[in-house]
Design brief:
CATH superfamily of the largest domain in chain B: P-loop containing nucleotide triphosphate hydrolases
Radius of gyration of chain C: 23 Å
CATH superfamily of one domain in chain C: Dipeptide-binding Protein, Domain 3
Strand order of the largest sheet of chain B: 6-7-8-3-9-10-11
CATH class of one domain in chain C: Alpha Beta
Structural class of chain B: alpha/beta
Strand order of the largest sheet of chain C: 13-17-12-16-14-15
Oligomer: heterotrimer
Shape of chain B: globular
CATH class of the largest domain in chain B: Alpha Beta
Number of helices of chain C: 16
Order of helices and strands of chain B: EEEHEEHEHHHHHEHEHEEHHHEH
CATH architecture of one domain in chain C: Roll
Largest sheet of chain C: 6 strands, mixed
CATH architecture of the largest domain in chain B: 3-Layer(aba) Sandwich
Largest sheet of chain B: 7 strands, mixed
Strand content of chain C: 15-25%
Distance between the termini of chain B: 35 Å
Number of strands of chain B: 11
Shape of chain C: globular
Structural class of chain C: alpha+beta
């Protein structure tokens, strides 16, 4: 396990470095001139543009810029104009010259909560429904559930989001409208504010998971070792949960690992739909404002998150399936 | 009706005299294409301490029969008729709960292909210990000790450490031994071994069969040995049922079947066994054709399309009239006993030598 | 003047009918507007606001009462993005100007009559709009009594000098540069690097003879200096609270409200500044007890919330953003919104710019003007709701605006291909080739198709070239660009041609990234610019700019104006006194009150 983790972490570092370098090149070297983007209306003032170049360190060679940037993330930076950027330093926003990191640290709890909460919701609902369908295979519940899954599969967050708000928050008043979590000061309120967004976000995922779970469970239940377990006198329930689910879980986790990127995407759309302030809306605004340092930071952080979570998923996979433990 | 093990005995006074008695068993699967008659009126008996071999090609209904005994068929699409009585207890109508209590405790099964038949996710020890905890209420510790004991018994070296291995860390032979340990962990009265040696090489095959026999002598378990290979039966079984298309076509003692088989299908099976003593010049003679579709079995004798000797029977009897299997020693074939004897001695036996 | 960058986001996303004018804010570009419209106001008639200079009496507080207004309550503002800059020195974009008025007082400011909408410039912190001397080169302002920062510290002329000095610091890159370059010339940053170097601007340029007086000594005459003083750059910055770039997140208030909490892009909450004295303020009524800005509210949800007005949304508005295009139809046609909607000109003019370096024959340029299909383009914009047909290079929001239509566009708004053909024959080029660059969004695709069709009818061979919307202005702003026609938008910084004609028509020192997108270089215009700039009589100057814009349109035809952008949005039924500032193109927060 230790070797497995070491190897994966080293691999992840290489991947993240590669991503960072490529995005850095794409963002800071290819466009016409970041200073032109940063100076707004006043770009006809050549002195100003030169000054911005110097402030951004754009007058240095590319490798030096990249090194300064990456180093800044770990040890902080002193910018050429004397501004201090404490670690983790992701540079300064083109849009308003403020350091990037405080903005991100303000936003990531929302996205993380949504991603975790939404994933929990769709895993519980989706896998649960799939298991029930597999258990009731061929009966009416199974058929109803597959129809619901089909509908769930064809809706979109931005479509059902407003409907759900109108119905469950405005009319019925069951749930909060959804707001940004503030875990330290108001954990209960934060939880309330996340229920509806997480449920809505889960809809586009759980239909897929319920179908996958159902077919995986059905497939597992027809495996020879299930028959063996039943031949030993183990009850159907026991066999279902201990044997079939364990086998299906390995595949579900693999699917989940592949879906991590989509989960992040789903969180972003959900943020926009519910007016939450997370990394997603931040990144989208950054794109529209051509705020490259902010985009770069969000991209690096989400890439890192996805890579890290993938390692976690793989580790879980290894825990579930002993055959790959040492692989 | 006579028992197979005591062909000379008088008809039994009551059915419960036998440890296991299967009467007129029908197993049918509903499929999209129609009804599959997997088992079509099968009867046999088995006593404690004895071994019954069930022989036939794949698809002949032998595995289905035994799944039906354990109640492991899929209840949604399977209909079962007839009776299965185990130690005086009727199994065909028994509740799931009753069956679950019997399975693994009173009757156990050793499956073929131990790689897929064991769960890859749990240790061998845990899989052996599970039924012991369930049926005998043993603690985890006791069950683990029992698993180690069983592993030792079936000849796994260093069972104390191997008990924590996963199936994929075992060799094929070891896995089959572990399967046997798992089947025997609760000292069942009936063990059904379904092709227990199919995937193994010849040396290991012999070891596994010896192991089964040794364990039987030790515990007095009744064994049903399912195989497509008459060679496996030779040293192991007491009685044999030959199945074809869901029916028993011949039954007798192992000696009867090997020395004086009566049914052309049994002759075919015999002919397909490789023998160390056989001349290399005489090729193996597989049975021509392929097993019939059970959706739409041939009329009359289901074997007639593949039977070389159907012409010896007058008219189209083979194609129209279903031959009956007599009770006790006998075969379901329209050939006269003389024809059977003559053909075997004159045409079949020479090729077996 | 540029428009909100947030509008750019909306423009690209919604794309439907929303103007992409703000795209210019990206690449060093021109000013523009998010043109959105509403009910069709009578097209092209001079609006009420007159943009004149108010007297000292007009400059005396308190602000005239708004009929029916009461104190108290909290106004909710729903904003799509947020405010990049709260540091007054960095504020230039309209959404920033809309919030600035709540906490930053300036030397002068626009006083808007709550009933008529008449807009005049008055002294805000200053006792009047300024006293000129030395032929318009020296401007003297006297501060009122009782001006205080939010911590009770009196505001002196030194504080204003300090805030002007800050504009020279290297992190101050976004704000307007008028005052700096008027003091030091265009390369002002080389001459002075800001107060953090330990140096002051010498008294010969910017003097504070006493705590109440500040004197600007400009290098050339600037009759429109009072307007420049109304931009947030003259808001006082308290030196002891100044932490350079980080000041952006917690500016010290001199106005009626101060920031009680700010989370960038999420929320901005204002409470009353106890040291603001209404008697000193002729502009701000400040009826509500607080303002609560909810930032980062996505469209069309934002517009839908304004429509529904549930809960606190009853008291909600959107100071600087127009309604979402998807809601426009409902809002314009459903009478229930009429009583709570704002539909006014923005200071932006949409033009089709002709690259005079490539299309050198004025007759060909005139042919383009005649052929241009204004009505079809207005439709592609989303109808009259989005903007009025416009035929002048100056917007109706400029003092002294006059109707002028040399090509008879209003008579034939769908284009006059016959006249165009005739001109092309005259020019000896019956089928000139035109490379047409447009920003690649659905809206501009539609517009470009309408325009290309009409031009082809007149005999032009049009080649359309799509350009990435985010770099559109950078691309068309290159002097050697390979395009013949492209649309731009420009808005005045104050209601005077001085912030339109020099930046967009001065042909000297052409280089990449200036705002003269047609690269027009007309000696007459160049010399007139110098002459009118030196004009000390503001009224005369206003007239002369107007005349020069007419000359440029008729004689050079380097730009074909076609639409005046309009602002349209609704506000919550719980609000009253909602007026509009047509100079900045946003709702005037000063007069708003919460109905009780």
């Amino acid at each position: 396990m230790l070797r497995f983790l070491t190897r994966r972490v080293l691999g992840a570092v290489v991947i993240i470095l590669a991503i960072s370098f490529i995005t850095y090149l794409l963002f800071f070297v290819l466009p016409t001139d970041p200073a032109q983007l940063a100076c707004g209306k006043n770009c006809s003032n050549k002195v100003l543009v030169a000054q911005i170049h110097h402030r951004m360190g754009l007058d240095l060679p590319v490798y030096q810029q990249y090194w300064d940037y990456m180093r800044g993330i770990f040890v902080g930076r002193h910018m050429p104009d004397g501004q201090n950027c404490a670690a983790p330093c992701f540079g300064f926003s083109f849009a308003n010259d403020q350091p990037i990191w405080p903005l991100i640290s303000d936003r990531y709890p929302t996205t993380l909560s949504l991603a975790v909460g939404g994933s929990a919701a769709f895993l519980i609902i989706g896998v649960g429904l799939g298991m029930l369908s597999a258990w009731q295979q061929g009966k009416s519940f199974d058929r109803v559930a597959s129809s619901i899954s089909l509908i769930g599969n064809s809706v979109q967050i931005y479509f059902i989001g407003p409907l759900a708000i109108a119905l469950f928050a405005d009319n019925l008043g069951w749930f909060d409208h959804g707001h940004d979590p503030t875990w330290s000061s108001d954990p209960v309120g934060s939880l309330n504010g996340l229920v509806l967004p997480c449920l809505v976000m889960s809809v586009i995922f759980w239909s897929n998971y319920s179908r996958q779970t159902r077919s995986l469970m059905v497939e597992q239940l027809s495996e020879d070792h299930i028959r063996t377990a039943r031949a030993k006198g183990m009850s159907s329930k026991y066999v279902f949960y201990r044997y079939a689910l364990r086998g299906a879980a390995a595949s579900i986790i693999t699917i989940f690992g592949i879906d991590l990127g989509s989960v992040l995407g789903g969180a972003i759309i959900t943020e926009a739909t519910f007016g939450l302030h997370g990394l997603g809306t931040l990144a989208v605004n950054a794109v529209y404002q051509l705020d490259l340092p902010l985009e770069m930071a969000v991209m690096l952080i989400s890439a890192t998150a996805i890579v890290v979570f993938n390692i976690v998923v793989d580790a879980c996979y290894a825990l579930i399936d002993p055959r790959i433990r040492l692989a | 009706m006579t028992t197979l093990t005591k062909p000379e005995a008088e008809p039994r006074p009551q059915e419960s005299e036998h440890f296991l008695s299967v009467r007129d068993l029908y197993v049918q699967f509903a499929t999209e294409d129609g009804t599959v008659k997997a088992v079509d009126g099968l009867s046999f008996d088995l006593d404690r301490g004895k071994t019954l071999g069930i022989v036939g090609e794949s698809g002949s209904g032998k595995s289905v029969t035994n799944l039906a005994i354990l109640g492991l068929h899929n209840p949604r699409n399977t209909t079962i008729a007839g009776e299965i009585v185990l130690d005086g207890q009727e199994l065909t109508g028994a509740s799931t709960k009753t069956l679950e209590k019997l399975r693994g405790k009173k009757m156990a099964m050793v499956f073929q292909d131990s790689l897929t038949a064991l769960s890859p996710y749990y240790t061998v020890g845990r899989q052996i210990a599970e039924p012991y905890m369930k049926h005998l209420g043993a603690s985890k510790k006791e069950a683990r000790d029992r698993a180690i004991e069983m592993l030792g018994k079936v000849g796994i070296p260093q069972p104390q450490t191997r008990v924590d291995d996963y199936p994929h860390q075992f060799s094929g032979g070891m896995r089959q031994r572990a399967m046997i340990a798992m089947a025997l962990v609760c000292n069942p009265d009936l063990v059904i071994a379904d092709e227990p040696t199919t995937a193994l090489d010849v040396t290991v095959q012999a070891q596994i069969l010896d192991l089964l026999k040794d364990l039987q002598q030790e515990t007095g378990t009744a064994i049903i040995l399912i195989t497509h290979d008459l060679g496996v039966i030779a040293n192991t079984a007491d009685d044999v049922v030959v199945m074809y298309a869901g029916r028993a076509v011949e039954r007798g003692t192992v000696r009867d079947i090997l020395k004086t088989p009566e049914h052309p299908y049994a002759w075919g099976l015999l002919g397909s066994i490789p023998r160390l003593s056989a001349s290399v010049d005489v090729p193996l003679a597989p049975i021509p054709g392929s097993p019939p579709s059970l959706l739409n079995p041939p009329s009359g004798c289901p074997f007639h399309p593949r039977c070389t000797f159907a012409g010896e029977v007058g008219g189209d009897r083979c194609a129209t009239e279903r031959p009956v299997l007599p009770e006790g020693r006998g075969s379901a074939c329209h050939l006269t006993p003389e024809q059977k004897r003559d053909i075997f001695i004159q045409q079949v036996q020479p090729r077996l030598r | 003047m540029r428009n909100s960058k947030a509008r750019l986001a909306a423009a690209i996303v919604a794309a439907g009918a929303l103007s992409l004018t703000a795209a210019c804010s990206s690449g060093g570009g021109g000013g523009t507007g998010g043109g959105k419209g509403g009910s069709s106001a009578a097209p092209s008639k001079a609006p009420v606001p007159n943009y004149g200079l108010g007297t000292a009496a007009d400059s005396t507080g308190p602000a005239p009462a708004v009929p029916g207004a009461v104190k108290g309550g909290t106004v909710q503002d729903l904003d799509q993005a947020g405010f990049d800059y709260l540091d007054p020195g960095q504020q230039y974009v309209s959404d920033q100007l809309s919030v600035s008025v709540l906490y930053a007082r300036t030397l002068t400011g626009y006083k808007i009559d709550p009933t008529t909408g008449k807009t005049i410039l008055v002294g805000d912190m200053a006792t009047d709009t300024g006293k000129e001397s030395d032929g318009g080169k020296t401007w003297t302002y006297t501060l009122k009594d009782g001006l205080k920062f939010q911590d009770g510290t009196p505001i002196t002329s030194k504080d204003i000098k300090y805030s002007i000095e800050r504009l020279f610091a290297d992190f101050e890159t976004q704000g307007p540069q008028y005052i700096q370059s008027w003091l030091y010339g265009p390369d002002y940053r080389k001459a002075y690097a800001g107060p953090y170097t330990g140096k002051d601007i010498p008294d010969t340029l910017l003097a504070t003879p006493d705590d109440k007086t500040i004197v600007f000594h400009f290098q050339t005459p600037h009759a429109d200096a009072p307007y420049a003083m109304a931009m947030p750059v003259t808001a006082p910055v308290e030196k002891s609270k100044d932490d350079k770039a980080a000041y952006n997140n917690h500016p010290v208030s001199s106005g009626p409200y101060m920031i009680s909490s700010y989370k960038q892009g999420k929320s901005l909450v204002f409470k009353r500044n106890p040291y603001w004295d209404p008697k000193t303020d002729p502009i701000r009524n400040a009826y509500p007890d607080g303002w609560n800005f909810q930032l980062g509210i996505a469209e069309p949800g934002l517009s839908q919330r304004l429509e529904a007005g549930a809960g606190t949304d009853k008291n909600a508005l959107n100071l600087s953003g127009s309604a979402d295009p998807s809601q426009m139809q409902t809002l314009v046609t459903d009478p229930q919104y009429k009583s709570r909607s704002i539909n006014q000109y923005q200071p932006y003019v949409e033009t089709l710019d002709i690259n005079t370096k490539r299309i050198t024959n004025p007759l060909v340029r005139q042919a383009i003007a005649y052929a241009f299909p204004m009505s079809q383009v207005q439709q592609a914009f989303g109808g009259a709701a989005q903007g009025d047909l416009g035929t002048t290079l100056l917007s109706p929001t400029i003092a002294g605006w006059k109707q002028f239509d040399p090509f008879g566009k209003l008579a034939k708004p769908t284009g006059d291909p016959e006249k165009a053909k005739q001109l092309l024959q005259q020019a000896g080029q019956p089928h000139p080739k035109l490379v047409y660059a447009y920003a690649n969004t659905p809206k501009w695709q539609n517009v470009s198709l309408s325009v290309a069709n009409a031009l082809q009818k007149a005999g032009f061979q049009v080649v359309r070239k799509a350009i990435d919307p985010t770099s559109y202005y950078t691309v068309v702003g290159k002097v050697n660009n390979q395009y013949d026609i492209y649309r731009t938008g420009w808005g005045a910084d104050w209601p005077n041609g001085s912030t339109v004609i020099p930046p967009t028509m001065d042909g000297r020192n052409l280089s990449d990234g200036t705002n003269n997108y047609s690269f027009l270089n007309d000696d007459h215009i160049n010399s007139e610019i110098d002459r009118i700039k030196a004009e000390t009589n503001l009224t005369q100057q206003t007239k002369d700019w107007e005349a020069l814009s007419e000359y440029s349109l008729q004689h050079d035809t380097a730009q074909v104006p076609f639409l005046f952008d309009k602002f349209f949005n609704i506000y919550g039924s719980g609000l009253g006194g909602v007026t509009y500032n047509s100079v900045t193109g946003v709702i005037n927060a000063s007069t708003v009150f919460v109905k009780q």
